Amino acid sequence: MFEIFGIPSAALFGQLLIGLINGSFYALLSLGLAVIFGMLNIINFSHGAQYMMGAFTAYLILQYSGLGYWPALIIAPIIVGFTGIIVERVFLQRLYKLDHLYGLLLTFGLALIFEGVARNYFGSAGLPYTVPESLRGGQNLGFMFLPNYRAWVIAASLVICIGTWFVIERTRLGAYLRAATENPTLVRAFGINVPRMITLTYGFGVALAAFAGVMAAPIYNVSPQMGSELIIVVFAVVVIGGMGSILGAIVTGFGLGVIEGLTKVFFPEASNTVIFVIMAIVLLVRPAGLFGRRA
Amino acid sequence: MKRMLGLTTLAVVLAGVANAQQINVKIGVLTDMSSLYADATGPGSVLAAKMAAADFMKDQPNVKVEVISGDHQNKADIGTQLANQWYDVEKVDMIADVPNSGVALAISQVTRDKNKVFVGSGPATSDLTGPKCSPNTVHWTYDTWMLANGTGKAVVKTGGDSWFFLTSDYAFGHALERDTMAVVEANGGKVLGKVRHPINTSDFSSFLLQAQSSKAKVIGLANAGGDTINSIKQASEFGIVKGGQSLAGLLVFATDVNALGLQTAQGLVLTETFYWDLNDSTRAWTKRWHAERNAAGKYPAMNQAGVYAGTLHYLKAVLALKSAADGKAVVAKMKEMPTDDPLFGKGTIRADGRKLHPAYLFEVKKPEESKYPGDFYKLRATIPADEAFRPLKEGNCPLVTG
Questions:
Q1: Is the Cβ–Cβ distance between B14 and B271 less than 8 Å?
Q2: Low-confidence ranges of chain A (pLDDT < 50)
Q3: Contact at CB, A218 and B295, closer than 8 angstroms
Q4: B192: domain CATH number?
Q5: Is residue B21 less than 8 Å (CB to CB) from chain A?
Q6: Strand, coil or helix: what is A45?
Q7: What is the ipTM of this complex?
Q8: B118 and B40 share a domain?
Q9: Is position B12 within any domain?
Q10: Is residue B12's pLDDT more than 70?
Q11: In which domain, by residue range, is B253 found?
Q12: B345 and B368 fall within a common domain
C-alpha cells in the first residue's frame, strides 16, 4: 500500500469518495439557489429553511400517514414547492423591480419565521428518521465501507443536477426561461405567460431544496437549525461557482465537497473555514465567480 | 395594669411585624432558549425553576420568589452583559442553569465580582469546581470528570481498552477529552488517536472513517447536542458497530436519545444523574412538568431536574439566613446544610462548590424492550455519590488548597 503525503492511499480514496457525497448535497442545494437567482434575480435566503421543511415534511408524512421514505421523496418536494409558489405569489413578485437587497431581506425574514415555527412545535433537539429498509447496509470497496444509502445519494443527485442543467440549457422550455430573464416584455409579446413561468420556476427551486432535505433526513439530524448550518456554505459554493450559473453550481458543489473532505484529513480544525478561504481567493481573482459572466 | 397592657400591645405589634417580614428573592434562569441545547435546558429549565419557587412558597408564604429568564445564545459576551444587567438593574439574587461551559465560566466570574450566587446546572466543565472554583458558585448536576469516570471506566472494564476520540473543538470538548483520556489510561486502556471537529458539524463521515481505520475498539464521542446525534446516526450508517467497534457517548441527554430514536441509539452506554423514570418521585415530578410544559413527546433532561433541585436548596439557605443579600454567605449556608429533594435524594455540597449525589450508568433499550413512550434506559450500575465525582484534593481548587 503506497502513501500520499503520509496518508495511506486507501484512506485518501475513502475521503475523496466521502467528499463527493457531501458535494452532492452542496450541488443539489446550490443548484436550486442558482436556478432561482438566474431566473428571478432573487437571492433566496430561505433556501436553508426550505431544505429543513423538506426533511420535516418527510417526518410528518411518516408520522401521520405511515408513508415511508420513497413516497416522501416525491410528496414532500411537491408540498414544500407549493408553499414556495404561495410565497412567490404573495410576496416575491412585488420585489422584482427593486434592488436585490429587498428580496434578500424578505427571504431571510421568512427563513427566521419558518425556523422559529418549527422550533416552537418540535423543539431543537431533532426528530428521528431512519434509513429506508431497501438501502440499509453497504458495500466493502476494499479501501472503505460505502453505505448503500450514500451511493444512492450520489446517483440521485447527479441525475437531478444533469437533468436540470439539460432542461434549462438544452430544451425549448429552458430557452423560454432564459429569454424571459433577459427580456420579459419581448417574450410576453410572443404569447408566453411569463409571470406564471417565473412562479413555477421558484416553486421548482424550492422543491429542489426540499428534495435535498428528504435526502438528508436519514443521515443528518432533522432539527430546525439543520438548514442554517448548511446554507452559509452553500452560498459560498454559489458565489465561487458564479451567481446564477447552473453548471457552475453543480461543478463547484461537487468540487468543494472533495476539497472539504481532504481538509478533514490533513487539518480537521479548518474544515469549516476552507470553503470561505477559497471563496475569498476566487473573489479576488475572478469577482464574477469561476463560471459566472461579467455583468 | 395600664403599663402591662401597653407592653403587651407593643409585643403583639412587634411580633406581627416580625411575622409579616417578607423575604423577596429574584432568580434569573440564564439559558439557551433557541439553539442546540434548548431542549435539554431552555424553556424546560425555566419551568423547573418556577416549579421550585411555587413549591417553596406554598410552605413559606412570607418568602416571595420571582423567576425571570433570558437567552445567552451560547455567546459568552451576551451572557455576561445580561448577567450584569440582571444583577445591577433588575436586582437578581441568583442565576441558575447556564448550559455551555464557555458562558458558565464567564458567569461564575461576574457572580463572584458582584457577590451574588450562581447555581450551575447546565455547564459540563469540571474546571468550575477545579482551578476556576468560586465561593459564589455551586455546580449541581454533572461535570466532565463524572461523565468520563462513569462511562469511560465502565467501557474500559468491559473490554473496551483502545480508544479513538471525536472531540468538539472548544472548551467543553477539550475538558471532556482530557478527563476521559485520564480515566482510560488509569484503567489500563490506551488512546490510539483523536480528531477535533468544529462545533455544529453536519457531516461526520470523514471523521468516522478515520476512527474506523484506527482500529480502536471504542470511539469516544466528546461532543454534545446535535453533533452527538449526527455522529451516532452516521456511525450506524457506516456500520461502525456492526464492524466490531463500539461507540461511547460521553455526554448524551435523554432528549438526544429521543431525537435519535431507539432503533439507532440502542445499546449506547451513558452516564446521567437523573432519569425521569428512575423512581416514584421522579415520575410524579415529570408528570407535573409535562402538564405545565405542554410539549408532547418531550422528557425532562438531568439539567432541568438540576435547576429545580438547585433552586429549592438555594431558597432553603436564603430562608435560614433570612436574607439573600450576601451571596457568599448564602453559598456557605448551602454547603453547610445537607440537601434533600425529590429528584436527587439526599446529598451534600462540598467546599469547592461541587454538589454530590449518585450517578447512574444507563444502557439505551432496544426498540422491542421499550414498553411505553419515553421508556429509554435500563440501569446498568449505580455509582455512589462519593465515587461519582472527582476527589476534592485532585481538583486544584484554590478554596480548598488555600
A1: no
A2: 1
A3: no
A4: 3.40.50.2300
A5: no
A6: coil
A7: 0.79
A8: yes
A9: no
A10: no
A11: 146-272+359-388
A12: no
